[in-house]
UniProtKB/TrEMBL annotation:
Organism name: Streptomyces roseochromogenus subsp. oscitans DS 12.976
Family: Belongs to the XFP family.
Record GO biological process: carbohydrate metabolic process
Cofactor(s) demanded: thiamine diphosphate
Protein name: Probable phosphoketolase
Coiled-coil segments on the chain, per record: none
Enzyme Commission no: 4.1.2.-
Length: 794
């Protein structure tokens, strides 16, 4: 039965109740076993210290509640034949999800050596949080997962991202009450205002309140129920409560809650898809209250454990050394009556398996949790369609991101029927000059609209919310379930998701080592409104450090590009949208920028990643250059070319080489990054012994860090952003940070042997212009005419 069909809640029969409870008890037993045991998995003999792991690492407290949810999701998926996915938010729920994956057979299918018998159970137990084994969190290694549980706050936005453009998919999302206290999770409740009941699937949030975090009560669990209800209703949800600690009663209530929720979802989707209802629906949410560490030890060493924060991790911590703890552990394991749950060979008995769906309907086997299996190539047109004409360098200007917007408009149009591309950003699509996409798709919006509103669209695939966390979570969930996208953001504020991108990079690095995980589309950032043209917003909007953050991460998974003009941005965009399993960061301007390269030249230059612009320098091939002017980024490129022009005019005998870097990882050694250069290549480009003046978009020390091993590093001098900013003119920003053309000419004179005396007058003239600039802008409020009206005349 598909999700758009309705079925009334049913009363569980005794057989159904017995089967559900058997499955739940089996999952609880397996969860405890993973935390504690390395031998004697079925407790067929009295428990001895050597059966217990020497280091007990894991978390019991949330596991019984997650096992309950998994058991009842199994039931509703099987009885209604649903396509479903679950995002497991509680960070420490690894034992539960692994246990259920093993019970349903998806774990053994993925890892054939972990068989569904006693030997496989022993492997399942020993490998958990054990050297050479698997993590204690729900992780990439876990079948059915799209969510790394190591950091809290992102489960609900991931769930909504998975549901977007998957109209037949039910995405359950278990939200722990600790996670519910985080800012990202709080913002992501608003995702229901963007979920289209016609074209998107459904998200069923399950707020699991077990009362405690590691050492403190949780806020939502201590609110009066009426206040919590008001909060969730205010978020736009209808509530379904399940509360208790008696297993039989909770099973019955949970089954009714699941049936009620799925029925309400089906009614909402039917009303939108068949009856044309356009009112924003009130989606169901289940509020599940069960004790923390439910069914575990009630008391340890005279202190209460079950239902308290003491159940969070390992309730019995000294099992190898404390005979009483060992006795309690054996009593705890036997309380689940494993002989009723597993046969003599250790295989789950039929009652345990009765609720489990078949094949790809199993939560651990759904292809939606291995999105690369569903991924299709994006339909991208030839770049020549969008290219700007460049008859000669620097003769025309374009806004690079506006040109890119035309390309993205076509991507949106070409995916209109298949709906597998989304553009996300925090209220900045038009600000970042990408508004051409609105001709192909408006902005997703399910809330109230007013006549003055523009481009709001109930079925839109442009997503804007003023929460970078939510944007990132949506896009990650979208990509992990087999689709494509782009995140456009102001450069300074993408730092808000520093921690989120850490987790995604770790996910990608891990999945590259899992042959069963198919590659997914890359997570692509377009960072614009960047540091050098935030002169109107000022210091608060000036921070180019996201690139530094990214380049600290796994080289196999990260790429950073700084295209200097419109055509190079097009070439880079085409490349990143075709790529797989990377985090790509593109920094590009939205302000008018000189066009330096034709489309053909841009393709070659971007493929090379770094290269000599012969037309910009004064090398004649008869001798080595006297100095290398290098640049990375659009504003630094313009300043370097202006400096090269000044040097040609004032010091025509000087042999100047101009090098532009698009792919910043090219500066790394080849053994450190797949895009890195060998020493031979690097020395050929930058020379081993000549002064190199490098104008860089961001913090200058990054370039030193990337190139510190190179032969010529002692000759490398980098200019970049020095954390000096304010509301000022565009050129004053570069002057304030010593990145301007006049400062670069002075640097050349200071560093090329013999010029300090011979070119002293030229240096003085450069300093005079800088001083004149300082006075001019304070009088006129605009840049010097020779700067504002500058053109390339090479």
């Amino acid at each position: 039965m598909s999700v758009d069909q309705q079925q009334a809640p049913t009363q569980l029969t005794e057989n159904e109740l017995r089967s559900l409870d058997a499955h739940w008890r089996a999952a609880n037993y397996l969860s405890v076993g993973q935390i504690y045991l390395m031998a004697n998995p079925l407790v067929t003999e009295p428990l001895r210290p050597e059966h217990v792991k020497p280091r007990l690492l894991g978390h019991w407290g949330t596991s019984p509640g997650l096992n309950l949810v998994y058991t009842h999701l199994n039931r509703v998926i099987k009885t209604r034949d649903l396509d479903a996915l679950c995002v497991w938010g509680p960070g420490h729920g690894g034992p539960a999800v692994l246990a259920n994956s093993w019970l349903e057979g998806s774990y053994s299918q993925t890892y054939p050596d972990v068989t569904r018998d006693a030997a496989g159970m022993a492997r399942l137990f020993k490998q958990f949080s054990f050297p050479g084994g698997v993590p204690s969190h729900v992780a990439p290694e876990t079948p059915g997962s799209i969510h790394e549980g190591g950091e809290l706050g992102y489960s609900l936005s991931h769930a909504y991202g998975a549901a977007l453009d998957n109209p037949g998919l039910l995405v359950a999302c278990v939200i722990g009450d600790g996670e519910a206290e985080t800012g990202p999770l709080a913002a992501s409740w608003h995702s229901n205002k963007f979920l289209d009941p016609v074209h998107d699937g459904a998200v069923l949030p399950i707020l699991h309140l077990n009362g405690y975090k590691i050492a403190n009560p949780t806020v939502l669990s201590r609110l009066p129920e009426s206040e919590l209800d008001e909060l969730l209703r205010g978020y736009g949800h209808d509530l379904i409560h399940v509360t208790g600690d008696d297993p039989a009663a909770v099973h019955g209530a949970m089954a009714r809650a699941m049936d009620t929720a799925v029925d309400r979802i089906a009614a909402i989707q039917r009303a939108a898809r068949e009856d044309g209802v356009t009112d924003r629906p009130r989606w169901p949410v289940i509020v599940l209250r069960t004790p923390k560490g439910w069914t575990g030890p009630a008391e340890v060493d005279g202190l209460p454990v079950e239902g308290t924060w003491r159940a969070h991790q390992v309730p019995l911590a000294a099992v190898r050394d404390n005979p009483e703890h060992l006795r309690q552990l054996e009593q705890w394991l036997r309380s689940y009556r494993p002989e009723e749950l597993f046969d003599e060979q250790g295989a789950p008995r039929p009652d345990v398996l009765a609720c489990i769906p078949h094949g790809a309907r199993r939560l651990g086997a759904t292809p939606y949790a291995n999105g690369g299996l569903l991924l299709r190539e994006l339909p991208l047109s030839p770049l020549e369609k969008y290219a700007v004409e460049v008859d000669k360098p620097g003769a025309t200007l374009h806004e690079p991101t506006r040109v890119l917007g035309d390309m993205l408009q076509d991507v949106m149009a070409a995916t209109a029927d298949r709906r597998d591309f989304r553009l996300v950003g925090p209220d900045e699509t038009a600000s970042n000059r990408l508004q051409a996409v609105y001709a192909a798709s408006g902005k997703a919006w399910q809330a109230e609209t007013l006549p003055v509103d523009e481009h709001l669209d109930r079925h839109g695939r442009v997503m804007e919310i003023l929460s970078e966390h939510t944007c990132q979570g949506w896009l990650e969930g979208y990509l992990l379930t087999g689709r494509h996208g782009l995140f456009s953001c102001y450069e300074a504020f993408v730092h808000i998701v520093d921690s989120m991108v850490n987790q995604h990079i770790k996910w990608l690095r891990t999945t590259r080592r899992l042959p069963w995980r198919a590659p997914i589309a890359s997570l692509n950032y377009l960072l614009t409104s960047h540091v050098w043209r935030q002169d109107h917003n000022g210091f608060s909007h000036q921070d180019p450090g996201f690139v530094d953050h990214i380049l600290n991460k796994s080289p196999e998974a990260v790429r950073v590009y700084l295209p200097p003009d419109a055509n190079t941005l097009l070439s880079v965009a085409d490349h990143i949208l075709r790529s797989r399993d990377y985090v790509n960061v593109v920094v590009a301007g939205k302000q008018p920028c000189f066009d330096w390269l034709s489309m053909g030249e841009a393709k070659v230059h971007c493929a090379r990643g770094a290269g000599i612009w012969e037309w910009a320098g004064t090398e004649d091939g008869s001798r080595e250059p006297d100095v290398v002017l290098a640049c990375a980024g659009d504003v630094p490129t313009q300043e370097v070319l202006a400096a090269a022009q000044l040097l040609r005019r004032h010091l025509p005998e000087l042999a100047v080489r101009v090098v532009n870097v698009v792919d910043i990882a090219r500066l790394l050694p080849a053994e450190e990054h797949p895009h890195g250069m060998t020493d031979f290549e690097y020395d050929g480009l930058f020379t081993p012994d000549k002064p190199v003046l490098f104008a860089y978009h961001g913090y200058p020390w990054l370039i030193h860090r990337l190139a510190y091993r190179r032969t010529g590093h002692r000759n490398l001098h980098v200019r970049g952003y020095k954390e000096i900013g304010t509301t000022t003119t565009p050129f004053d920003m570069v002057v304030s940070n010593d990145l301007d053309r006049y400062r670069l000419v002075m640097d050349v004179i200071d560093r090329v042997p013999g010029l300090a005396v011979r070119a002293a007058a030229v240096r003085q003239a450069m300093e005079d212009v800088r001083q004149r600039h300082h006075v001019w802008i304070r009088e006129h409020g605009m840049d010097l005419p020779e700067v504002a009206d500058w053109t390339w005349d090479g």
